[in-house]
Amino acid sequence: MKRLNVLVAYSSKEGLRKEFDELHCVREDDGEPPPDFFAEGDSSETIDAVMEALRSAGHDVKGAEGNSYFLESLEKTRPDIVFNIAEGLTGDLREAYVPMLCERRGIPFTGSSPLTLGICLNKARTKEILSYYGISVSPFKTFHDNSEIDLSGLRYPLMIKPVSEGSSKGVFEDSFVESEDEAVERIKSKIEKYRQPVIAEEFLPGDEFTAAVLGNGKNTEVLPIVSIDFDKLPSCSKRIYSYEAKWIWDKPERPIEIFKCPAKISENLRKSIEDIARKAFAVLDIRDWCRVDIRLDSAGTPNVIEINPLPGILPKPEDNSCFPKAARAAGYSYAEMINMALQNSCARHGIR
After folding, report:
1. Is 234 inside a domain boundary?
2. Same domain for 226 and 342?
3. Domain co-membership, 63 together with 168
4. Relative to the CA of 250, which of 160, 234, 317, 321 has its CA 20 to 30 Å away?
């Protein structure tokens, strides 16, 4: 591949905090955000690791926050391609913001289209599309502010989540509810706290996995499956990959051996998980890379629980970031993983 001028678009935790503070000055009624509000922001360590990985392949690399000033950075640097890992701050289209600006200026970018990013961020819309194409998902209902909370037809226990968040934002241990009264209270509190609709879905009691997908079309590769061992969590855990499990109990300085990769599963189950991951990738028109979270129902059937077209890519093994973990199990270094995502995008855009 030729030497490229690459602009990395990111959302740092500090950048998101600054953006929130700027909005807070305008909307004084916002108050302080929930403690998990900036969970999707990347650390400087992750941003530096991505940029260094691209430089190691010989590219000229600059970085810019994917915020309201990103268009200025885009026009100033005039990159050959944007390497997009920007999550944004608020709204259903926050992950689509950088790709929309790139499309507007005719500049290639890595990853999925604005439409796909917008759909995948919304758990309800994602599940509706997947179920239409016969891909198994847990039964669910969505509730908006001031809407009637009718949970009839759903079987307990339920999971209660904000409809448009990632990185386990809003998915605490208290998201697991076992009664109607508990569910109604949790739905109301999460709507108020996260200022968006909430999804209530039937809890799937089986094992949980994540499948990292890399490539496009016939060159799509499902990396070794990652399984989650909930027995490694504290005994109080609800056996869900909650915010507590992801950010409080499991820390780099004291990592929990919660993941196994490759997962120790039967060949038939592995093929079933790979198949549903590939189908979801294709149906939602995902590009270049993605992480598909999957959980088994009571019959042992894989169900898609979430799609992550901007997968977490923390660089250190002790960070327990699933996509890099799967890449390492496949024999790829962190730099190789990042540059494969770039190469996938360049091939798709016709950049030689």
Report:
1. yes
2. yes
3. no
4. 160
Q: Map tokens 């300085």 to a residue.
A: 253
| Cα–Cα distance, 326 to 260 (Å, whole number) | 10
Which of 334, 304, 350, 347 shows the shortest CA–CA distance to 133?
304
Q: Given the structure tokens 């038939």, which residue do they identify?
A: 268
For residue 262, cis peptide bond before it (omega within 30 degrees of 0): yes
Q: Chain-centre distance of CA 184, in angstroms? A: 27
CA–CA dist 55, 210 (Å, integer): 29
Measured CA to CA, the distance from residue 238 to residue 205 in angstroms comes to 10
Which one, of 199, 137, 204, 121, lies nearest residue 162 by Cα? 199
Tell me the three state secondary structure of residue 241.
coil
Q: Domains in the chain: how many in total?
A: 3
pLDDT category at 304 given cuts 50, 70, 90 is very high
For residue 193, give the CATH number of its domain: 3.30.1490.20
Closest CA to 47 of 77, 73, 84: 84
